[in-house]
Amino acid sequence: MLSHVDWSRMIRTILFNWCIQVINIATSILAARLLGPDGRGQLAIVLLYPQLIANMGLLGMDRGLSILTGKNLIKHNLWSILSVCLVLSLGAFIIFYPLAYGQIRDTNIFKLSISYAAYMPFFFVFMLISASFQGGGHFAQYNKGRISFYFAYLGLLIVFWLFNYATLSGFVLANLFAVVIASFYSLFLYIKLYGFHVLTFRPILRDVFTLIKNSWMFVGPMIIVILASQIDKIIINNNLDEKILGLYVVYLAFSRLGGAISNAFNVHMFHESIQNNIARIYQRIIRTGGIYLIMSLILIIFAKPVIRIVYGVEYIAELYSLYIIIIGSFFYILNEILSEYFRGKQIVRVDMIGGVIYIVILSTPYLITNPQGNLQSFAVFVVCAEVIKFLFYVWSLKLYENSTTERYSEV
């Protein structure tokens, strides 16, 4: 069972995530209202490929650093982190440019996407610093760093709106500057936590090699997982149109309004699995799943009036698709909790196979044919992919439990 301190941390994390969720809702509403479905879809395309390549470009370094920090196997050397970020940024942009050039057909959207790609070095700094906080159990710093991005993004959007610059390019620049602000704030928190000695230059090769040695196992799985997290938008971009993509990202954000609970459990699940604490994972899944099931039912019941009032009447065009997406998000939440447990245990093959299952089920119909070419049929495929992935995770968890029990009985 969780201790009083653990529950206190969990509650604070949930509150932080709910605060982030509120800000996310505000930015989502602004984007939906000011850009409309078509413009919201264009914004999703602009952000899609830089974020896809940046997340893949981490090469599992965030997971490796989190584990090394949690086990006190690496020194707090800021120069090592910055050096790794520089190399990752160069590699990511080299891969990003030809991919974006081949995938983005609109010249203006392509140029905006190239401009947004300047966020990559700051993103890498932010992610690795956050990973260090998470691995070390410094959840206050971890949450403060994360929430700084959302506050900066919302604040910049409001300023741009007041000066009549809340256009597509305004949203892109606001997101870019928010990442920069969050990375510098995370650096400040890192120095404040560990002291100014982290700024003292020390040889970096040993730390870098240690990080690579403990991260390589995550490269394949994380690439698959990141691709799986964006494959839905890639499929819509290539097979449907910008308006449907705009509707989809709004529906997806609405369907995951209860994600604060999931994120709080995920952070602590990963940390506990690193520390080899055997969590009562079934109870957690049932507890979290029960809470989110109730929230999902509430979202379905109030979807139409809320969407109409908050986002605008043009966003109620695909309500049945929204209901199906909410069901898919319920299983997505459960999958994320299970995934964090396996990542912390360094059982990376489960994440990789789960991601492959999701990608294959979701993309195969569109590789063979374009079924009806509408959002509702796509939403059905999303639910099928999430459910089958969940069943695979549960089966893998049972296998892991049985193997662990057998090892203990042999001892």
Order of helices and strands: HHHHHHHHHHHHHH
Percent in helix = over 70%
* β-strand amount: under 5%
Task: Characterize the biggest β-sheet.
Answer: none
Q: How many strands? A: 0
Question: In angstroms, what separates the terminal alpha carbons?
Answer: 25 Å
- Bulk shape: globular
Number of helices: 14
Mean pLDDT level: 83
Poorly predicted ranges: none
Taken together, the total number of domains comes to 1
| Rg from Cα | 21 Å
The helix-and-strand class reads mainly alpha
What does this structure look like?
By secondary structure, this protein is mainly alpha-helical. The protein has one domain. 84% of the residues lie in helices and 0% in strands. It contains 14 helices and no strands. It has helices at 4-57, 61-70, 78-103, 107-116, 120-135, 139-162, 168-194, 205-239, 242-255, 259-274, 281-311, 319-344, 348-368, 375-410. Helix 2 packs parallel to helix 5, helix 3 packs across helix 5 (120-135) and helix 6 packs antiparallel against helix 7 (168-194). The longest helix is centred in the N-terminal third of the chain and has 54 residues, at 4-57. The mean pLDDT is 83.
A few lines on this structure:
The protein contains 14 helices and no strands.
Short key terms for the protein model shown above:
14 helices, 411 residues, mainly alpha
Secondary structure elements and their pairing?
Layout: H1 4-57, H2 61-70, H3 78-103, H4 107-116, H5 120-135, H6 139-162, H7 168-194, H8 205-239, H9 242-255, H10 259-274, H11 281-311, H12 319-344, H13 348-368, H14 375-410
Helix pairs in contact: 1-3, 1-4, 1-6, 1-8, 1-9, 1-10, 2-5, 2-8, 3-5, 3-8, 5-6, 5-7, 6-7, 8-13, 9-12, 10-12, 11-12, 12-14, 13-14
